[in-house]
């Protein structure tokens, strides 16, 4: 037994004994205060601890421009990012921000898009009615479409509508081709959507329907 113990011990170059695999598996690393270092830092890994849950909002970077400003020492180069955020239902938002590099510009634009989130009305998988909105020099026309039509739109409009629950839409971009103005025009058009029950011609029908439902409820109570 003594010879077997001597053979099992292996000395490293530094003069210390080499730890056996079975012993190493039970050892835990500790810091100077005696705390366990093998556990994960919750603050550092908070972003990755999603437990596999899907994200509620998706983001897409529509455009990145390089802008310059002339100062006393010369030109100051920066980046401008246009980001859209949506939940593939009826919530959408856009953000525009500048930064010294592309990453910081995208992060600022994403934060602005989250703050400027709007909720709009839908009619099934399309918009409620035709709308034409204008933002500065950009003019965007959007029309509802029948099921199976798909999204007939340009680059910016298609990118924004793709983050919503709209599956059928016909649109036309008129006027300026500035992507930021087109994005704002699309958001204004979605914000102006009015559900079918609240249309001017359907207010009387809605009131009649509500009155009919109330009378039926009263009749049921009386019958009981």
Describe this structure in words.
- It is a single chain.
- The chain has a four-stranded antiparallel β-sheet, with helices on both faces. Strands 5-6-8-7 form a four-stranded mixed β-sheet.
- Residues 48-53 have low confidence and may be disordered.
- Among the domains are: 58-119, Double Stranded RNA Binding Domain (2-Layer Sandwich); 131-197, Ribosomal Protein S5, domain 2 (2-Layer Sandwich).
- Helices cover 29% and strands 26% of the residues.
- It is built from six helices and eight strands, in the order H-H-E-E-E-H-E-E-E-E-H-E-H-H.
- The chain starts with a helix and ends with a helix.
- Strand 2 (74-86) and strand 3 (91-99) form a beta hairpin.
- It is of the alpha+beta class and 224 residues long.
As laid out across the biggest beta sheet, the strand order is 1-2-3-4
Shape: flat
Q: What are the segments in which pLDDT stays under 50 over at least 5 consecutive residues?
A: 48-53
Amino- and carboxy-terminal Cα gap: 93 Å
Give the CATH level 1 class of the domain at 131-197: Alpha Beta
Q: Which structural class is indicated by helix and strand composition? A: alpha+beta
CATH-scheme architecture of the domain at 131-197 = 2-Layer Sandwich
Order of helices and strands: HHEEEHEEEEHEHH
What's the β-strand tally?
A: 8
Rg: 31 Å
Instruction: Describe the main β-sheet briefly.
Output: 4 strands, antiparallel
**What is the residue-averaged pLDDT?**
81
């Amino acid at each position: 037994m003594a010879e077997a113990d001597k053979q099992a011990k292996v000395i490293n170059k530094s003069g210390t004994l080499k730890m056996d695999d079975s012993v190493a598996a039970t050892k835990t690393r500790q810091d100077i205060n005696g705390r366990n270092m093998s556990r994960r830092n919750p603050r550092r890994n908070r972003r990755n601890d999603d437990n596999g849950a899907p994200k509620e909002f998706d983001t897409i970077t529509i455009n990145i421009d390089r802008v310059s400003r002339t100062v006393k020492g010369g030109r100051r180069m920066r980046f401008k990012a246009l980001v859209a955020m949506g939940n593939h239902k009826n919530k959408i938002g856009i953000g525009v921000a500048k930064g010294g590099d592309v990453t910081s510009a995208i992060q600022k634009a994403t934060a602005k898009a989250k703050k400027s989130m709007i909720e709009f009305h839908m009619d099934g998988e399309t918009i409620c009615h035709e709308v034409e909105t204008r933002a500065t020099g950009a003019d965007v026309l959007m029309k509802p479409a029948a099921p199976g039509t798909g999204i007939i739109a340009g680059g910016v409009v298609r990118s924004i509508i793709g983050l919503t629950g709209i599956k059928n839409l016909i649109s036309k971009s008129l006027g300026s081709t500035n992507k930021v103005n087109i994005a704002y025009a699309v958001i204004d058009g979605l914000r102006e959507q009015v559900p079918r029950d609240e249309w001017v011609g359907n207010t009387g029908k809605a009131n009649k329907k509500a009155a009919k439902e109330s009378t039926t409820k009263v009749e049921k109570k009386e019958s009981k």
